[in-house]
Here is the input.
Amino acid sequence: MTTTATTRPAPQQTLFELTADQAAQVREAAQRITALPNQDADAFCRQALEASFDLPGELRKAVLNFSDVGSDSGVMVVRGLYVDDDLVDTPLDNAQGHAGRTEFVKEMGAIAHLLGTMVGYEAENGGRLVQDMVPNPKLAMTQQSQSSKVELEAHTEQCFSEYRPDYVILGALRGDPDAYTFAYAARKFVEHFTEDELKQLREPRWMTQIDDSFKPFIPDPNAVRGPYPILTGPEDDPYILIDQDLMHGVTKESQELLNKVVQTYIDHRDGVALAAGDLLMLDNPRAMHGRSMYTPRFDGKDRFIARGFVVRDRRRLWPWLLDDRRTVAAMYS
Here is the structure.
């Protein structure tokens, strides 16, 4: 019996720019979604999945390829989506959930459901499927999504949790040219480490604390979880687990190696400043990410991002979902 070798698809490049016709087709497909993500998450996701079949063929092909083999940067950006003409002023916090009521979020949902299915986390903005990411003057200096005056440090989303998302999606309702979303794919990262260092990175030598936003909901908020390896998965396309702020090495040597990981990210990361109409999809297991500092004006026209989370297989979350079947209960985070 003979076998035929298959050629692995080439990684998708970072940017997919919609033509005017493609953008119109995306908008037409999304307009069939009638449910709102933060009021009936299950219906929204089912309708978004159905709408995804009517997206332009070239866009579908590119996103599905990104889902399969990732990209050289760890992200994919779709540029040129319609943004609501009557968009509200950028709020000063995420309490109102304005993004979830936009037409833009329907486009975002349809594209996201080519990757998997959207879920919420009870500990993140009350479990909203779509969250407002805006500069909050009270949180400007924190390591949270609403910060602005400090760099959001390198991390894997929900590094401390077994139920972390497979993708983080960031849709720009308004952009800021000085606010860069950084990403660094593990497949590029490994080029800067010796064979011995890579072997060590695959050993469980790092502990992590729990993110502040999750602590109020977890039975043991001061728990230190681990030890974990930083790298897992195939050698030519590894998965990475890291949190610059919350993770520490169990020995002096492992802490020094963690420091090298962070510095390598800083030296070689890719960055994109999202503009209105951009949708960024981050491959959470395959890339670490962060965000630059920037200076908001707090005049209603600041950066306004709609954030969501996607998992490839919702079945792995069934025991830990709330009754809505879309929200991971906070106590299990």
In short: Residues 252-268 form the longest helix (17 residues). Residues 15-332 form a domain with the Double-stranded beta-helix fold (CATH 3.60.130.10). The chain has one domain: 15-332.
